[in-house]
Amino acid sequence: MRELERDFSSSVPAAAPSATGSSRELRLAIIGDGRLGRALAAGLRKAGYRIDGPLGRGADAGGSQVALLCVPDAEIAAAAAHLDDGAIVGHCSGATGLGPLAPHEAFSLHPLMTVTRAGADFTGAGAAVAGTTPRARALAAELAAALGMRPVEVDDADRTAYHAAASIASNFLVTLEAAAERLGATAGVERALLVPLVRATVENWAALGPERALTGPVARGDEATVTAQRAALAERTPELLGLFDALADATRQLAAMPEPV
């Protein structure tokens, strides 16, 4: 994994789009009218790019020199097959390599950011990029930078592990907080009361790392409290016992790790 510089013009052939502004004269089709397609279209249009779309799946992106596919992973190859051979084609999948885009000159751009129906602010987020040619790779990095993201090159062999890490950090965190919310509700504790705790915990993890940010009964070695907590789950939300046990075991392992010097 390699973080790319924000000035990409030196690595791009003269005929290719560069970071000096010429790529903003190209037409870029966004294919896929879902959450990500709409968010990327809005962000790139605001950044000065000429955007067609977001278009529906199966669009041929006629007249656009660049096409960015925001479709489910299983539909990438079929969507790419609709496009002219001369187009530079990208996808936004985190776990997929560039093979499904063949024979096009290809790139990938995966924002390391959650996107809801309300859209997304990509500023400050990471972005996994790749390309089959230097100019395709540079274009991916340029688009990421135009949206305020930090482009990082991720090899095809690392894509699944990268995407799994993103899923744990984002999707699984929501699942975990849903479990906390469900149990808290049995004690009259609303989600709003847990939010400051969650935010402070994430900020501590970001600033200090996991070993120093960890607090609570497992970190203190207070197994009597952990046992009492487990009994409360068994009574009120027994469906969460498996999750609680797995997380308690993982937290014990983390608590046993020495803090970084």
Q: What does this 3D model show about the protein?
A:
This protein has 261 residues and is of the alpha/beta class. Helices cover 43% and strands 15% of the residues. The longest helix has 18 residues, at 191-208. It is elongated, with a radius of gyration of 22 Å. Residues 5-21 have low confidence and may be disordered.
Could you give a short description of this structure?
The chain has helices at residues 35-46, 76-81, 134-146, 159-169, 171-185, 191-208, 210-213, 217-220, 223-236, 241-256; strands spanning 2-3, 27-31, 50-55, 66-69, 88-91, 105-112, 126-131, 150-153. With 261 residues, the chain is an alpha/beta fold. Strand 7 (126-131), helix 3 (134-146) and strand 8 (150-153) form a beta-alpha-beta unit.
List the helices and strands and how they pair.
Layout: E1 2-3, E2 27-31, H1 35-46, E3 50-55, E4 66-69, H2 76-81, E5 88-91, E6 105-112, E7 126-131, H3 134-146, E8 150-153, H4 159-169, H5 171-185, H6 191-208, H7 210-213, H8 217-220, H9 223-236, H10 241-256
Parallel strand pairs: 2-3, 2-4, 4-5, 5-6, 7-8
Antiparallel strand pairs: 1-8, 6-7
Helix pairs in contact: 9-10
- Category from helices, strands and their pairing: alpha/beta
Spans with pLDDT under 50 lasting ≥5 residues?
Answer: 5-21
Strand order of the largest sheet: 1-8-7-6-5-4-2-3
| Helix and strand sequence | EEHEEHEEEHEHHHHHHH
CATH homologous superfamily classification of the largest domain: NAD(P)-binding Rossmann-like Domain
Notable features of this structure?
single chain, 261 residues, alpha/beta, Rossmann fold, N-(1-d-carboxylethyl)-l-norvaline Dehydrogenase, domain 2, 2 domains, 8-stranded mixed sheet
